[in-house]
Design a protein that fits this description.
By secondary structure, the chain is an all-alpha fold. It has 23 helices and two strands. The termini are far apart.
C-alpha cells in the first residue's frame, strides 16, 4: 500500500512538473507543434510527404504505450501485461493507416489520429488532482487538430481575403501574398506611393515574417516555391492557437474553474471564426494574437503595475499596430485602466507611473506609427488611410444606414449563409446584398464570406447542419451578450475596473465596425474578422455568470450550468464537423 502511494506521489510530481513546463512555455510549445507539421504537409494535404504517415503512427504508438504503461502501474499490474496491449494498439494503428491512399483519406487520418492521440493521452494519464489541466489540454489538442485539418484542406488562394497572387521577382504584385513576394525578392519596402497597390497600405510586420518564412523554407531548406508559399499558413495557424492559449490565461486570471471555465474555453477553442482565422494569410491573425496578449498583460499590470508588465503591453500594442493599424483600438480600454490606476495611486506613486507611461509611449508609438508617418511625410498619405474600394455589385449605397441597422425582416435569415447579389446567365440580378451589420456578422462569424450551399453540393444534408449551427451560435451569442450586461452589474471575481476594461473594448470594436459599415457601404465592410475578440469577451462574461451560479445550489442553477455546457459541446462538435467537411471539399 505504501509502495503504491509512493508511486502515485511520484507520478503526480512528474505530471505537475510537465504541466508547469507547458504553462511556462505554452506559446513555444504551440509553435513547435505547428512547425512539426511543416515537413509532413507543407500546409496542404496535397503536399503530404512520405514521412507524414510514419510520424503520425509513431506518435500514436508512443502515446498508446505511455498510457497503457501508466494504467498498468496505477492498477498494480505487472508491466509485462502492457506488452500485448501495446502490440494490439499498434496493430489497430497499422490496420487504420493501411486504408490511407488519397487526399480525402489523408485528411481523415489527420482528424482521427489527432482525436485518438488526444483521448488516449487524456484517459491514460488522467488524475483527479489535475482534472482542470487535463480537461484544458484535451480541448487544446482537439481544437488544434480541427484547425490543422482545415488548414490542410484550404490553399493560400482559397477562402482568403485580398491575397491576389505570389508575384515574380520583377513585379510589385498586389494583395497580401504579393506584398510578401515583394519583400522576399527586394529586401525592402515598396519605395513609392503605395495607395494604388492593393494591401501595400498595411504596416509590414506580418508580411515581413511571411517573407522570412518563405525564404527559410525555400532558400535554406531547398523546398520548392509552391510548397514554401503554401506552408506560410502555418503562421496564422500558430497565431490562432496563441489566441486560444491567451484566452485560457485570461479565464484563469479570474479563477474560472469547472464549467465556468470549460464553457467559455470550448466556445473560444471551437468557434468557427478562430478555425478559419488559422488559414488566413492576411494580417488579421497576427494583429489579434498580439492584441489579446496586450489584454492579458493589461490585466496583469492592473494587479501588479510593474515596469516589466507595461513594457510587455507596449510591445504587444506597438507590434500589433505594425501588423495592422486597427490594433490601435486597444488604446481606449488600456487608457481607461491606466487612468484609473494613476488617480488611485496619485499620492504615493505618481512619479513611478508617469515614468512607466513614458516608457510605454516611447516603445509603442514608434513601433505602431512609423509606417503611416513614413507614408504621410513622403507621399502625403493620411495616417488612417484605408484602401478605396471600386464600385462593385456588393455595394449597398442605395440603402440608408438607418434603414440598414433597423431592418430585421425575416427574409434576411431564410438563408443562414451571407447573401450576395448575383447575376444569372441573362445578366439579370438575383438575390440581394446583406445590409444589416448585426445579421451580417452573425452569419460570417460562422461561415465567413466564403462558405455557402455550394460547398455542400455533394452533401446537401450539410445545409441543415449549417442551419442548426447558425441558430445555436446565435443563441450562444445572445446569452453571452446578456451575460455582459448581467456580469457587469453583479459582483464577482473581476472588479468594476476590469469589467469596464472589457466592456469598453467590446463596444469600441463593435462601434468601429458600424462606423466602417457606414463609411464604406459594401457587404465586405460588415465582417466579423474586424471584431473577433468579442467572442472571448462574451465567453468570459458567460463564465462569470456560470461562476456565480456555481455558488447557488438551486435546481435551476444546476440546469443552467448543465444546459450551457451541453450547448457548448454540441456547438464544438457541429462546428468541427462542418469545417472538416468544408476542408474535404470535393476530394
Amino acid at each position: 500500500m505504501e509502495k503504491s502511494l509512493t508511486e502515485n506521489n511520484r507520478a503526480d510530481t512528474v505530471i505537475s512538473k510537465v504541466f508547469g513546463f507547458l504553462s511556462a512555455h505554452s506559446y513555444i510549445m504551440a509553435f513547435l507543434i505547428c512547425v512539426i507539421t511543416v515537413p509532413m504537409f507543407y500546409g496542404a494535404v496535397e503536399f503530404t510527404s512520405g514521412i507524414a504517415v510514419p510520424l503520425i503512427f509513431v506518435a500514436y504508438c508512443i502515446s498508446a504505450a505511455l498510457a497503457i504503461v501508466i494504467q498498468c502501474r496505477k492498477h498494480g499490474f505487472d508491466l509485462r501485461v502492457a506488452v500485448p496491449f501495446t502490440i494490439s494498439a499498434a496493430g489497430f494503428g497499422v490496420f487504420g493507416l493501411s486504408y490511407v491512399e488519397n487526399d480525402a483519406q489523408k485528411l481523415t487520418m489527420v482528424l482521427v489520429a489527432g482525436i485518438i492521440i488526444s483521448l488516449v493521452l487524456y484517459f491514460g494519464l488522467f488524475t483527479k488532482k489535475f482534472k482542470r489541466q487535463f480537461n484544458a489540454l484535451l480541448i487544446f489538442g482537439i481544437s488544434f487538430t480541427v484547425k490543422l485539418c482545415y488548414v490542410l484542406g484550404t490553399s493560400v488562394y482559397e477562402r482568403q481575403h485580398d491575397v491576389n497572387w505570389f508575384g515574380s521577382p520583377d513585379e510589385a504584385a498586389p494583395g497580401h501574398l504579393g506584398y510578401m513576394s515583394y519583400l522576399l525578392y527586394n529586401h525592402k519596402l515598396y519605395d513609392g506611393d503605395y495607395t494604388g497597390i492593393s494591401q501595400y497600405c498595411h504596416p509590414p510586420l506580418h508580411h515581413a515574417i511571411g517573407a522570412l518564412w518563405i525564404k527559410l523554407i525555400n532558400g535554406i531548406f531547398g523546398v520548392d516555391m509552391d510548397r514554401a508559399v503554401e506552408s506560410v499558413q502555418v503562421l496564422p495557424m500558430f497565431y490562432s492557437m496563441t489566441i486560444i492559449i491567451t484566452a485560457y490565461k485570461i479565464f484563469r486570471h479570474f479563477k474560472l474553474d469547472g464549467k465556468s471555465l470549460y464553457v467559455p474555453l470550448i466556445i473560444t477553442a471551437f468557434h468557427p471564426c478562430f478555425i478559419f482565422l488559422g488559414s488566413l494569410v492576411n494580417n488579421d491573425a497576427l494583429a489579434w494574437a498580439l492584441s489579446m496578449g496586450a489584454v492579458l498583460l493589461t490585466l496583469k499590470w492592473y494587479s501588479e503595475p510593474t515596469m516589466k508588465n507595461i513594457i510587455g503591453i507596449a510591445f504587444c500594442v506597438g507590434l500589433g499596430m505594425m501588423a495592422k493599424l486597427s490594433a490601435a483600438l486597444l488604446a481606449f480600454p488600456i487608457a481607461f485602466v491606466f487612468l484609473v490606476v494613476f488617480f488611485r495611486n496619485f499620492k504615493d506613486s505618481w512619479k513611478k507611473l508617469i515614468g512607466q507611461f513614458s516608457v510605454f509611449g516611447a516603445i509603442c508609438a514608434p513601433l505602431g506609427m512609423w509606417f503611416p508617418v513614413r507614408g504621410l511625410i513622403r507621399w502625403g498619405i493620411p495616417l488612417t488611410y484605408v484602401q478605396e474600394l471600386p464600385e462593385m455589385p456588393q455595394s449597398i449605397k442605395g440603402i440608408t444606414f438607418w434603414e440598414r441597422i433597423t431592418d430585421f425582416s425575416f427574409k434576411q435569415v431564410r438563408n443562414v449563409y451571407e447573401n450576395w447579389l448575383w447575376f444569372d446567365e441573362n445578366d439579370i440580378p438575383q438575390g440581394f446584398n446583406e445590409h444589416n451589420p448585426l445579421i451580417a456578422i452573425l452569419k460570417n462569424s460562422i461561415f465567413s464570406e466564403f462558405i455557402n450551399g455550394n460547398n455542400f453540393a455533394a452533401r446537401q444534408y450539410m445545409d441543415k447542419v449549417a442551419v442548426v449551427l447558425f441558430w445555436l451560435a446565435t443563441a450562444i451569442a445572445a446569452a453571452a451578450f446578456v451575460s455582459i450586461i448581467v456580469g457587469t452589474i453583479r459582483k464577482g471575481t473581476a472588479d468594476k475596473v476590469q469589467k469596464m476594461f472589457f466592456v469598453i473594448f467590446y463596444f469600441v470594436l463593435v462601434g468601429n465596425l458600424y462606423l466602417l459599415s457606414k463609411n464604406y457601404a459594401f457587404v465586405c465592410s460588415m465582417n466579423f474578422r474586424y471584431i473577433m475578440p468579442t467572442v472571448i469577451i462574451g465567453a468570459l462574461f458567460l463564465g462569470f455568470v456560470l461562476q456565480n451560479t456555481e455558488k447557488n445550489g438551486k435546481a435551476v442553477a444546476k440546469v443552467l450550468k448543465t444546459g450551457t455546457f451541453a450547448a457548448s459541446v454540441v456547438f464544438a462538435v457541429i462546428s468541427s464537423y462542418l469545417y472538416f467537411i468544408v476542408a474535404m471539399g470535393e476530394r
